[in-house]
């Protein structure tokens, strides 16, 4: 059987951040969904301190992809060697290496080299595939640069919190309430409308109109939800967020708790950097980074708003579960 030709691409960029910072961002893949635009969720399957196997979901245009990523981390050399096993292209993995080199005290040079085995395509389709590969590499470096060059302010922009509620009623009914997001406009007072598309089992692509903000405006968020019913978990990432939120990820998880169920909503938020201009698709939001209270007040408001919405959802899920049980008796 003739061997297939491997296509190699290589892209290099100078980033205004120390090499150690950039390597740390690449090495910590579990945080990618919050820090980088494309990843939706990353689960670490195995890790021995050097070799790592990950399951990753990301957004590619209008679809959600899933693949395995095998990596070898070399912190002293600041390189990450990887092999991506795409479920849509079995037997044709993409391999490559991230290399980070020091370029002065405050800058570094980042190189992404990728080797990909093209599918047997026509000349026109092959050329388009090559352009997509080059564009994907350039986008990955640009996304890495965007977050790395804010490294000195990143801790102030990141917010992580949990809301936990003990509910009476079967876990299956509580999970069903959280899973059936298409029914939320009829069940939750702060949800005006929901549009859901499920191209693959357990993968929900959503658009949600919410009117719980203090100013009374309706805000639209678009996102992806990954539903794992056997593990009683729902992971989510919002792809379009209202100001001052730049990125928003989280997870609903259910565990047995005495005579009921403990439901936890863990959320992570990346705020817009007031020092970095950004384009807003949703112009109804007006965020003034110089408003009274500054960033500290913004963090408080975001925490309060999102926490209130999640706990309201959880309490209503518990009420519906208890009501359903009483009807069955």
Give the SSE layout.
Elements: E1 7-15, H1 19-27, H2 32-35, E2 39-47, E3 51-60, E4 63-74, E5 79-86, E6 94-102, E7 108-116, H3 123-148, H4 154-157, E8 158-168, H5 171-179, H6 184-187, E9 191-200, E10 203-210, E11 219-228, E12 233-240, E13 245-257, E14 260-271, H7 294-328
Antiparallel strand pairs: 1-7, 2-3, 3-4, 4-5, 5-6, 6-7, 8-14, 9-10, 10-11, 11-12, 12-13, 13-14
Helix pairs in contact: 5-7
Structurally, the number of domains stands at 2
User: What is the end-to-end distance?
Assistant: 66 Å
The Rg value, from CA coordinates, equals 22 Å
Helix content: 25-40%
Structural class, by secondary structure, is alpha+beta
At CATH level 2, the architecture of the largest domain is: 2-Layer Sandwich
Residue share in β-strands = 35-45%
CATH superfamily of the largest domain: START domain
- Per DSSP E runs of 2 or more residues, the count of β-strands stands at 14
What best-fitting shape do the alpha-carbon axes yield? globular
Number of helices: 7
* Spatial strand arrangement across the major sheet: 1-7-6-5-4-3-2
List low-confidence stretches: 279-286
Helix/strand order: EHHEEEEEEHHEHHEEEEEEH
Q: Look up the CATH topology of the largest domain.
A: Alpha-D-Glucose-1,6-Bisphosphate, Chain A, domain 4
Oligomer: single chain
Largest beta sheet, briefly? 7 strands, antiparallel
The CATH first-level class of the largest domain comes to Alpha Beta
Q: Could you report the average pLDDT, rounded to the nearest whole number?
A: 87
């Amino acid at each position: 059987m003739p061997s297939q030709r491997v296509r190699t691409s290589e892209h290099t960029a100078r980033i205004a951040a120390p090499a150690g910072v950039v390597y740390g961002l690449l090495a910590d893949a579990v945080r990618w969904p919050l820090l980088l635009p494309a990843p939706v969720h990353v689960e670490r399957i195995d890790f021995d301190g050097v070799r790592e196997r990950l399951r990753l979901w990301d957004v590619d245009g209008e679809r959600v992809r899933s693949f395995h990523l095998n990596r070898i981390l070399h912190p002293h050399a600041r390189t990450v060697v990887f092999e991506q096993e795409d479920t849509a292209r079995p037997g044709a993995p993409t391999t490559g290496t991230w290399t980070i080199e020091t370029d002065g005290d405050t800058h570094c040079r980042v190189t992404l080299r990728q080797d990909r085995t093209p599918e047997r395509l026509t000349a026109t389709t092959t050329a388009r595939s090559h352009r997509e590969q080059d564009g994907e590499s350039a986008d990955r470096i640009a996304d890495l640069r965007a977050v790395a060059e804010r490294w000195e302010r990143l801790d102030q922009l990141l917010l992580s919190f949990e809301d936990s509620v003990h509910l009476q009623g079967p876990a299956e009914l509580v999970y069903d309430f959280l899973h059936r997001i298409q029914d939320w406009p009829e069940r939750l007072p702060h949800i005006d409308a929901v549009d859901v598309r499920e191209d693959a089992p357990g993968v929900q692509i959503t658009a949600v109109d919410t009117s719980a903000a203090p100013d009374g405006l309706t805000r639209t968020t678009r996102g992806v939800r990954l539903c794992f019913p056997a593990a009683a978990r729902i992971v989510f990432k919002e792809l379009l967020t209202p100001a001052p939120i730049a990125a928003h990820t989280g997870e609903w998880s259910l565990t047995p708790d005495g005579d009921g169920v403990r439901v936890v909503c863990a959320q992570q938020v990346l705020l817009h950097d007031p020092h970095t201009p950004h384009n807003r698709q949703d112009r109804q939001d007006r965020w003034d980074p110089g408003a009274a209270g500054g960033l500290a007040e913004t963090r408080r408001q975001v925490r309060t708003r999102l926490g209130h919405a999640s706990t309201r959802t959880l309490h209503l899920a518990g009420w519906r579960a208890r009501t359903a049980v009483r009807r069955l008796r």
